[in-house]
Amino acid sequence: MDTTNVVLHTVHQAAEAVAHTAEGSGQGITHMMMLLIIQLAIIIIVAKVGGYLSQRFLKMPSVLGELASGMLIGPYALGSKIVLPDFGPVFTEHAGFAASAELYGIATLASIILLFLAGLETDIAAFLRYSVVGSVVGLGGLLTAFVIGDLTAVLWPGNGIHNFMDPAALFLGVISVATSVGITARILAEKRKMASPEGVTILAGAVFDDVFGIVALAIVMGMAKVSMSGGSVNWGEIGIIAAKAIGFFVLVTALGLAFARKITAAIKQFKSKEIMVAICFGLAMLLAGLAEMAGLAMIIGAYIMGLALSRTDLAHEIEEHLEGVNNILVPIFFCVMGMMVDFAAMKPVLLFGAVYSLLAVVSKVAGCGLPAWAMRFNMRGALRIGLGMLPRGEVALIVAGIGLAAGIIDQGTFGVAIMMTVVTTMLAPPLLVKSFNGESGLRKEMAGSSEDVDSIDLEFPTHDITEFLLGRFVRALRNEEFYVNRLHTEQLTYQVRKDDIMFVMIEDGNKLHINAAEEHQTLVRLMLTEELLSLSDLLDATQKMEDLQTMGSGLLANMFC
Amino acid sequence: MDTTNVVLHTVHQAAEAVAHTAEGSGQGITHMMMLLIIQLAIIIIVAKVGGYLSQRFLKMPSVLGELASGMLIGPYALGSKIVLPDFGPVFTEHAGFAASAELYGIATLASIILLFLAGLETDIAAFLRYSVVGSVVGLGGLLTAFVIGDLTAVLWPGNGIHNFMDPAALFLGVISVATSVGITARILAEKRKMASPEGVTILAGAVFDDVFGIVALAIVMGMAKVSMSGGSVNWGEIGIIAAKAIGFFVLVTALGLAFARKITAAIKQFKSKEIMVAICFGLAMLLAGLAEMAGLAMIIGAYIMGLALSRTDLAHEIEEHLEGVNNILVPIFFCVMGMMVDFAAMKPVLLFGAVYSLLAVVSKVAGCGLPAWAMRFNMRGALRIGLGMLPRGEVALIVAGIGLAAGIIDQGTFGVAIMMTVVTTMLAPPLLVKSFNGESGLRKEMAGSSEDVDSIDLEFPTHDITEFLLGRFVRALRNEEFYVNRLHTEQLTYQVRKDDIMFVMIEDGNKLHINAAEEHQTLVRLMLTEELLSLSDLLDATQKMEDLQTMGSGLLANMFC
Known about the structure:
Two copies of one chain form a homodimer. By secondary structure, chain A is α+β, with helices and mostly antiparallel strands.
């Protein structure tokens, strides 16, 4: 044991010597890299286990567990106590910031990926199709949440914020804006309510919420940056900033959509899908950088590039290829956000955080629910829709992180934002599940339209045949310009949409369930029949082609000649 | 236009203001992150295009194009001329280093992934099976390359290296050690020579080369670190260091292999494959950090963790899930390595570089060829084997990067290492292809054993049926404990091995080619027949199960009731 210590000490001296030859900040790059890799190792293991626990035992989205594990191992909690012999604590503050630049860089990369994928998954057709109901529900929730979030900061006594235009107030407004509909979609899929009127309205509203949320962020970033630079923000100037932000968004998105097919046609020259995907992702990062340079935020550029590519046939290739990156890097992002929660700084603002979180619940339920109620839903339906739009997620966290990094909000306010995200995400699932018990959510006079969701169930001999058919069916649907979106649920689930047709396909072992509203059953059955017939033809051809058994005997016969 | 400038200027001022509030190194974290994302965007696009060009038009591995694009955009070339308005050049030196810590961190992460995957793909069964021929060829090339590489540095006049134990000399030795067999495997697969005696010998030699190369690196890192810390390295001490390095490697690998099944059984409790893969990768990073702390290099730990997991059934899950990460991050690594080449620093060492590269060719051809010749090959066969072992790749680059970051080698020597990698990788393909023209490579007296490689060709009605069968066949082979390794070639190619059976499966549109030596044809045909019969049964069952067409009419019938 003694020699080990001696050697460790020698190694340490060697490392020190090496460190000093590098002309870095006193710590050699080799040492920095070792620390980074050990940090990443701990982060990924703890975050994945935390995510699993919250999914499995709390029936909550994994993001909560990832955040919580970050809080646990952050420099303000256990992190400072994880000490490497001779190297000191693994997680420490770096110039008042909970992560080193190299660790924060990986988290930032993950946030770009997150928003690029969010853009890619946006269903622009639904945006146009459901423009009335979607925009009313989405915009209602957005405006209410923004105003209430901002006003809470202004009216709360003793925090030094007295102005609606104060950058910190603007940030507290915009942080509470973006709904994260993933957990809602999962619950709707599990309860087979995705094709219900409430389900369709929530999903349409979420598309608007996404798009308008990004625009709102663009405006606020512009205002905050001017405010921060000491300029006084008057209404005329706000008009200009808003016009610029909206202009940037609309112009770049329109250009992107207009040239998406040309761009992808050029990218397809590379033949290899790996190269195409990597270049599209490179373009997303490039636009992210441009957006930041234009005074907006990087995630806005990443989202726009995703949006522009969402209608091309590369969209699902990109999604599939980025799945692995998503799986490794995104938990790192959430965990790092958790690490930044400084419990000491939060103590004085706990009450404010509780009120802010509560109002964030109220603002979405009222802001989305009331417009829905005004349209064609009864109170039950309106509540369902409001609760469905309740959870906040990755965008709230990213925006809070941007604010913290830029010094616009302080550690305490950052903690409040995390608290609000956690509260809304935790409250939504149980309330949503409960709200869906009982009668129709449509008003009596509106209830004429069919609301029954029927399930078509097919069973195949083995799981791989089911998978094979489902794969062929998904491809056939995409060829017919259906929007087919894979949900991140435990079972392989696809949401399919085109015009006002909408259904959900769930693979369940060797079974395949297709849930569709009664009015679309005919169409779904027809398409499925067509696919089954073509599969049957294919199997026939394979059987007969040379007869598989003959092929087998042929193979064997050759053995003896 | 004028207002744009004014606004850009205002934004810049705002950014400055923001930057100054962060207590960083004077540049705010927000600005650093923007720069990082723009750097990554440029790197990934340029690297992917470069890789494509080198593959498509030069018929060279993409790594060459990725390296070259890095040289092009590095701070010592065009990089300093890519200037952002108001933000300065995108690529600059950071304290004498061509990459910022946050960019280098991502490259380091990529190098960990590369070596983790290399470990995962190691065929330990082949290691034991071919221990004689493999160890003789692998070890012969390794020792020759190391000694010649080190001596070249010592004997070259005027570089200040006079001692075989000089850390720089040791690094020049170990950099030239590791063969990168990827390009060779591709050529063997294309020329259908993978199952030939030369092919089998090269692939067996490469396994040994990998494992012993990592051990050699461990020893050299230990020696270099002691040397760097001012300690004089005497032979007794070397013995201790070598024993420690080998001890670490053998002990950790043995523990890993012994507990791999227990570890994976524990990890499998998480059910979700995404979580399992992420945790395995986290463990690889953890072991990487431990290896560095123990005075070795991080990639050694990553490789060992891969090796330990290579025999578990998680191995190919991990490979598949990490493909996307590989596709995005690994080109960044190669490009960053290229960026570090300082042309000015290389000028004085160009001649040395040429000689070093040439000797790196000679050392592998002789070091691997001669033992092969002594065993059962004629000169032709020996040359083929030597040329197959010639290319150096990712490990050489990673080791050179470690040496540069630690200050053990200087910019010029780093450039020499890159030059050697490029030269050996470029020379191998044409020479190898040429060498395989002509007669058998076995000596006359040995030529009794069959050497003919036959192709079994099957054709199916559609591409997806071929893929379906191939997928089932691969799974069946893995269940029977065959080692099935997917090669990174343009066509989907699998190398299959168990005991001394070895064959290659190539998917080619709706055709499937299986190349096997004549002596294994019988077995392959039997297994394939079995699989075809079980497929035929499955198709029968699917056809009959309710008859797909009936299922179709059933679906339609339901429409009217």
